[in-house]
Fold this sequence. Notes:
Helix content: 10-25%
Order of helices and strands: HEEEEEEHHEEEEEEHEEEHH
CATH superfamily of the largest domain: Nucleoside Triphosphate Pyrophosphohydrolase
CATH topology of the largest domain: Nucleoside Triphosphate Pyrophosphohydrolase
Number of strands: 15
Radius of gyration: 21 Å
Amino acid sequence: MSDHRPVLSRAAHDRAALRRQDGDWLAQPGRRAASLPVTGDYLVPVLHTPDGLRLAWRAARDDEPWVFLGNHGGAAYGMVRAARDSDSYADVEHWLGLREVGAVLSEAEAGLLVEAVALAQWHDRSPFCAQCGQPSEAVEAGWQRRCPDGHQHFPRTDPAVIMLVHDGADRCVLGRQAVWPVGRFSILAGFVEAGESAEAAVAREVAEEVGLVVTDIRYAGSQPWPFPQSLMLGFTALAAGDLTLRVDQDEIAEAHWVSREEITHGAFASALPPSLSIAHRIITDWLSGHLP
């Protein structure tokens, strides 16, 4: 059976959240034997093996800040921060990012890597307490930050919607953000605003970006997108009434109604988003008829 999960939604490990507060368990000898170094620019060491790319896990030092990722196959996995030019990693030949390896890693390693990068990004963006401004420190195995006054902060995830708008027949809308290079297209997307449901965000974003009214909004899956801290909520939506596209010319530079034939064999065949993205999964599922 084909796996229709978005690539970065794959995961096989147990996050074992209750262990994050279990200091005795976390401090047991050998507990930090499987730790993933993550650099300041979010690269990780990668090994080329006969079976493909694998992450290069290392044992962490006892005095090294360690973020617990979870359990898998009887082992505890964690993340440490690293510098590529450190003597400890002089033997590492390849340092790559999530965008480069996320789609080709095993299910288990892909899930652990997404979690590690998301947590590293959050810690880098949260050095001070959002309530009082004092410096905060990581506690509970890296899953909480706390300031001297005791204010607690947890990893942030910002919900965003990404939607394939279709005409109920053979066409969907593809657009190009103004910051993208010419020739690159994807489906529409935007962040959920405060006090707004995901479905309402879909309708609002489509109206704002291309001037369409949509109905029959249906959930199509989700995927973490830690660049830096988004959760992409995928949907399909049926355009109703006038199908004329009215591009906002602010966020969206151009948008087009595109047929399946144009995507698979025509001018848009080489313009789709990379396989790492949920947009790629939603588009390919629409092409093959697997969407709700």
